[in-house]
Amino acid sequence: MSSDFEPQPTSRRVVVVAPTPPEKSAYALARYSRSADSVVDSLDWVRSHSSEKFLDSFYFQYGHASIADLGHCIFCFEGVSELAAIEIEDEQLWDGQAKSTRYQDFSKAGAIVPPELVSPVDRAAYEAASRSLIESYLSLHAKLKDYLAQKHPRPDSMKQGGYRRTIAARAFDGARYLLFLGVPTNIGQVTSIRTLEKQMSRLGASDYAEIRDIAKEMHGACAAPPTCVWDPSQASEPIAPTLAKYADPDETARASRERMRRWAAENVSFPVTADLPDVDLIRPTDPLDEIVATLIYSATGSPFRVIHDEVSAWSRARKLEVVEVALEGRERRDEFARSFRSGYGYVFDVVADIGAYRDMHRHRRCQQYLQAYTDALGYETPELIGEAGLSSDYTPAIEAASAARAQIAKTSVGASHYLMPFATRCRSLYKMDFAEAEYIARVRSGVKGHISYRRVAWEMKQRIEELEPELGRLIEATPPEVEDPLTR
């Protein structure tokens, strides 16, 4: 039996494709995988054929969602609240950067007024409280700069410009506790169109009107030519008019969250436990127990350990009742909610200030769950504030914001969250494997980091070492008392 096969000489094995409109690149690479043509021929083909027809056939009719992974786009979000930024960034397959609280002055852009804030009285209270927080933030930063400059004189080996920037950055680390979820920020992200779709669907079902409005703007942006182009002389076309047009709000997820909140409010009451550490390590062994406990954790304000211990003693029928409540209305092709992601060896329940959560939230190799914002856990007062004798500048600003939140919450709990200072403590859950725990503990505990998340990272190592000394000793984390304030 003869064969026509002959080895082919190859002069070029690596072909670089210049940036291409996201849908066109998705179309070209999808066709490339389905034909014998070179990528050059595939791109030529795409130039003369409709991507919309192809994508409608393969993506929507046949469910080849991986095609949307082949087109990437850059989205920037300007003047969104810090609250919105946290939700925007809540994608596992996400690459991006947000405005840094260490290197930029956040006092210049005012505050985002949440759309839920319709009462003139509440709006006035919100504006007064936000203005007071910003003024206190600026005053605190100036005083902290003076204090730190006195405490840490410039070494002869350090240039004046670098020294000033470092002192200013360390002062911002202290002042940022008075920033709040309503301050505006900017985010730049690079994602695949599939991730963009999921992001828009998720944001469109947010509990916050600002975020739902952002999702609508994203839809419009997908169908329009990009605002910024590298070469203004080149014609531009919409970045994802076909692949992103069906990214409707995920109402199934929203309904599931609401059902779980109602079920938890009506069916469970967990004991108050005051002796748990702020960084608690739990090692679930039963997947059903873990899933049920996670579903309830996301719907309540209780510690994961307390919930998991109670759930473990329930009957199988009661556990399955919780699962059924969460899955009601789910279609066959709908992905399971994040709460169903189980089987991770290390589950950390962390209570820390919102600023620390904002930084820890950047880690993508783990599953994360944030409980609803609340005043119940109090707020952090950084040691630097007391050490510098600035508690009288700090505490009244925090307490005034708390009083304004209490007033606003009577008409809109969601709007009151925008006045949460970064100092406010929140509870969040992280599921990961040992390699990720080692990475976070090692990197986030370093002297260049902010003290609030450095403590979290160090405590993660401590919890592992308590349970598994041999593994814990492999983690080279830096104790928070080790400092180098002139390193950033």
Could you describe the 3D structure shown?
A 4-stranded antiparallel sheet has the order 4-5-7-6, sandwiched between helices. It has a domain of 56 residues. It is an alpha+beta fold and 488 residues long. Helix 5 packs antiparallel against helix 15, helix 10 crosses helix 12 and helix 17 runs antiparallel to helix 18. It has 19 helices and 7 strands. The protein is globular.
Sheet with the most strands, sense and barrel status: 4 strands, antiparallel
Mean pLDDT: 91
Distance from first to last alpha carbon: 70 Å
Order of helices and strands: HHHEHEHHEHHHEHHHEHEHHHEHHH
Counting helices, strands and paired strands, the structural category is alpha+beta
Question: What percent of the residues sit in helical stretches (DSSP H or I)?
Answer: 40-55%
Tally of helical runs: 19
Low-pLDDT segments: none
Measured by DSSP, the beta-strand proportion falls in 5-15%
* SS elements, strand count: 7
Shape: globular
Gyration radius, to the nearest Å? 25 Å
Q: Strand sequence of the main sheet, in spatial order?
A: 4-5-7-6
